[in-house]
Amino acid sequence: MADNVWIIGAAMTKFGRHPDKDVLDLGSDVALEALADGGATIHDMNVMAVGCQFEPFTLGQKIQKQIGQTGIPVYNVTNACATGASAVRTVIMSIKAGEADMGLAIGVEQMGKPGFIPQMGRPRRDKFEPDGRFGEVMPIEGVLGTDFMAGVFAEAGMAYAAEHDGVGFDQFVKIAEKNHLHSSLNPLAQYRKVFSTEEIKASPMQAYPNTLLMCCPTGDGASALVIVSEKKLKTLDPDVRKRAVKISASVMTSDPWVEGGQVQPDVNTLTRNAADQAYEQSGVDPQDLDLVELHDCFATAELVHYDNLRLCEPGGAGAFIDSGGPMRDGKIPVNVSGGLISKGHPIGATGAANIYEVATHLRGEAGDRQIEGAKVGLTHVIGLGSACAVHILEKQAV
Amino acid sequence: MLADMGQQVPIVDYLVLDDGAPYLNANVCDECGALFLDRRNACGKCGKTAFGKKRLADTGTLKSFTIVHRAAPTVPVPYVSAVIHLDGGGSVHTNLVNVEPDPEHVQLNMPVRMTTYTAGVDVDGTEAVAFGFEPAEGKA
Ligand SMILES: [Zn+2]
After folding, report:
1. Å from A328 to nearest chain B CA?
2. Is the ipTM of this complex over 0.85?
3. Contact in structure between A337 and A182 (CB atoms under 8 Å)
């Protein structure tokens, strides 16, 4: 039986715009902060992993050159929107494998303000000749449907609406309204403004049913965690031990073959698989959860994950939001940080930052947004393509 | 046929334009029957490498959609992107056409049927024929 793993240090930058910094500043500063938070230094680390989607090339080594070149192994990880969580899990696996007893995981991204519409596909050709895996003779985006994120996740929500009653535009709006409201309490969130139902409905439509206020922004940010084996933890200072948070489950999945998955990315099955494995690994029941940080890249995505993560009755995601279940004073608070929609979504940072968020609540250090008495929480991220990570964290004595 | 009379080519290779009605032609795994529209190295379901062809139905059901209002400058908006489950198996992702692009006219689970239209013309006057689906009125 592999040793348990614990978090002893956690840090996060404010998400948003950091034009005065580069990705190296963001990653290095947050790493130093996490190490200090855990009462450790870079010299205590035996392994390091860095998640960054857009500038991953030896970024970990560049950070080492800023904060301490100790010669330890460093892994540079990309996994779409699950990049940060993949870095965390790389350190966890290294410790569980017995190769390391203390490690540093960093998730970081600087997105500046790229245009909402990414460059996709090949340029238009003057002469029609078949190209690519579909033998397409011209760009197919907007002709054979959309592959842009806002549309893909809108379709994921609408596919749920096609199968279940009580799900529509109003439910998706309520989710965005909740996350904007939650973010007003989080000083680290990119946006902290409260919006009314009417304001969310009236904001510019991107891909129905997602209006602009139902879509996550781009941004800059970083988060880092210091992770240790239980054996190592027992040798550490009592002040460090008392703030430690147990990682009771750490699971990654990819999307298994399903009928129709070729034409509509399936974000559900891999999330259900990851959640079920995490509940099994930890012995935690979904109803035990005091808070959940899940991947609300769009309001339509959050809704389907209520069901995928077993937070509601099967098919009952619409009723769950209607009843206020995921509000911070509801049955299972979801995205009390403000979620990706309002806290922000610097791609590589997100999967580490949601672990920071839950750990901070379990330590009782979340300030105005603290969920009182939180003992157990779950984090979820999904990178389209797809990669899913679920972690379950618990406050326990050691 | 003279080149300037306008030859037609399918926008993607799984759309077949021959003398009869246009249709969608999928790769079907010999072993497990899984359907694919793209060029394959092996089967994503079972891993085997032998494939045949299967002609898909031109009718189906609208299982999801989004109405896209923000797109690249070359793409006219709003338009409806749709996920369609075809009668008899298989599914496709394409635009829903010949319908008002608003949530009142686009109804989940409504029956739809395939249609084709010219999506572009190249320097030689060759037309790219695309497929879309449209509401199939009167079909239960
Ligand atoms: Zn097969």
Report:
1. 30
2. yes
3. yes
